[in-house]
Write a structure and sequence with these properties.
about 900 residues; 3-stranded antiparallel sheet; elongated
Amino acid sequence: MASGVRNGGGGLGSRTGSKMDRQQGSAATPKAAAGKPRLSASASGGGAYRRTSSGPLHAAGGGGGGGRASSDSGVSSRVRVAVRLRPRNAEEQASDADFADCVELQPELKRLKLRKNNWESDTFEFDEVLTEFSSQKRVYEVVAKPVVESVLEGYNGTVMAYGQTGTGKTFTLGRLGDEDTAARGIMVRAMEDILADITPETDTISLSYLQLYMEMIQDLLDPVNDNIAIVEDPRTGDVSLPGATVVEVRDQKSFMDLLRIGEAHRAAANTKMNTESSRSHAILMVNLRRAVKGRNEMGVSMSAENGHSSSMMGSLRPPIVRKSKLVVVDLAGSERIDKSGSEGHTLEEAKSINLSLSSLGKCINALAESSAHVPVRDSKLTRLLKDSFGGTARTSLVVTIGPSPRHRGETTSTIMFGQRAMKVQNMVKLKEEFDYKSLCRRLDIELDKLIAENERQRKYFDDEIERITTEARCRIVEAERECKIALENDKMKYHQEYLDSIKILEEKWKVHQQSPKKEVKETESASTGDVHDLLQNEKMLRQSAEDESNDLRNQLLHWKKMEATATAEVVKLRRMLDTEASQKDKFQEEIAVLKSRFMQLSMDADETRMSLDTGDGPGKIFPGLDSLMSHTRSSQPREQSNGPKAPVAKLFEQVGLQKILSLLESEEPDVRVHAVKVVANLAAEEANQEKIVEAGGLTSLLMLLRSSEDETIRRVAAGAIANLAMNETNQDLIMAQGGVTLLSMTASDAEDPQTLRMVAGAIANLCGNDKLQARLRGEGGIKALLGMVKCGHPDVLAQVARGIANFAKCESRAATQGNKVGRSLLVDDGALPWIVKNANNEAAPIRRHIELALCHLAQHEVNAKDIVSEGALWELVRISRDCSREDIRMLAYRTLTSSPTLQSEMRRLRIEC
């Protein structure tokens, strides 16, 4: 019988599950004991029976995981085992009505009696005995909650279910509880507790969901990945699964969706023992990374090259993170072929299940008996559970049994498996490490602040020096000008007075020559007195001129002294600037030494992490849940497309294009939906695009965008227009019929990410046409693209980035050919800040398109000032150094080296390309 596919999450049949649902509400849920559990001597010895305290399944020696252990020492912890009895189902009530149950539970004594006959029975003790009336909440609190608490404190933990097929393993672990929240299993309740305890800003949760089917490890979140290899560290022996899908979890809803996806892909079949029997071992791996707050247990002391301890380095404390892993294992049930009735492929599945369970039992026997050799490599199941039994994880095992005496043999085997597992000792270890990446980011921020502060102070000093120098020069020029004017005025004044005195003397001399000698004698004495007075006046005037000249000379000396003082102040400021420059050089030397030290510490930390981790493989990270859901929905159409001819092509040939296009105007919504889907599929092929446009299909699709309010019709119509927009001729028709305006209106009204992705794809295709640049921008195409980034969906952002890259490339080509001048239209519409913000996006498609767009914008000098002011220069430098694509990296390098403005800014910032 071929194996089927599981539709739900329950491990029991519908009748069994309904009975347990009715009875679990009346069961009591005792609280966990507050103190540490007391183990008897037989708890760690070799005895077959054990007695424990009445508390839940706390790990031995750890106080429920509350102790704090270092990464190189551990605490001994025994595997804790609980037994759970399934109630009778309808078949057992009918066929075994005259027979008593083969087991008798004594939960208050944590004891179970297995009847051999009416007179004899064997008694076994477990860490917890759960009756058929125990609720799911009770099971979680005594079995899994202590392990979850240990995982939250930094220890690895494992919760596993073992038992005969049809006894309720999947019900106990993987029940989703969609109809009844009280029926939620261990997986759902454990994630609720984890999400309630973590801090989303500093802690991260990621998970993988796998199944071991026919000795092949398959990814339940990515069914195409159906043969994942196990990688084992040759030095430490730790195992990891690098090929498994790892998805980051932020809330309970996304976790439930992931469980539904995994359960939908898990193998199941209908057997005589169970109508929905699991045919694979399901393994849920939850990886938790938590930041430790308030821990400065280790100081980092580094020395500078001159032998003195650097205060900057000595104050650094790298943050501490704890890495732990919770593994929930739903083992497939052991079965006997004669009872299950397996045949054909189901028989091969049963053989593989029994073989892997047999290997697990051998390993547990060897560990319980402290054997020197443990056959871990006999099965992939035992290799995956190497850390759970005899490793470093806290492990809780729940064994499920049925009451029917017809399955006494299987029940006995299950009980003995649990008894042997109770003898296994683990050495749990706390996983802590230094987060050097976070410290490096913090140092980079401090370095940027120091550089910015130094540049600000240097600019202030330069401006102050320039101001003082200019003021001194102006004062000196003004003093020289005033002194020169005063000297000229005095010179002219004294010269005029001298000429007037000479003239008066000449006139008197002439008069003296013409007068008689008597008069000469009489006036001789008077003339001599006048001359003497004139000479005295001349001396006084000359003396006053000399005094004024000395005053002006003293003023000139005073201004020269002020100039010397200003020059001394300038020299002092220059010395201060030189001191700041030397301090900056010292800071840069300290930072260089610091980086070299931390590179060495990072290498040491990597070696320490490799020796301590338990196999947290790097796995590929999916950007989110939406991509997984879309992949699941699209898997069936791909499988159906292998026939001789696709159904759409047959419909196209039989019905005709005109008939299909006429259905787009049908009054029935379902008919319009199917018709537009057919047109979209036809438009995906280039051979059909011309026929669709000639028949008026493009016009009909645009009418649907304008008039339809159905989200599905608008999404599919936008996808069809995006396919048609790949042709240059069709692009002109779309623009002529107002397609960009309709697409912009659709983008503003739509909320579905898939609709926005289709609209963004159509506009992105139009952005690649050189002739439509101005019209596209004028009709709001660029603003519509930028408005869709609010959605935040990675697929939408990838299409927006592609459109901006196409637009920037066409602008660059037009500017190179001389067809365009002036600043980029993208810069005018405010696209540059978003480009800079997403230039280092984690998603490779988004990052690649953004890097290409940024390089094209920076190619032209007219955009260089905007590139510098928006901080895009640093991203260009990063692209020229670290971009994974060589062509983009070389384009960025050529752009940086060819732009004078960028070169000048790089020299100012002392950046080397």
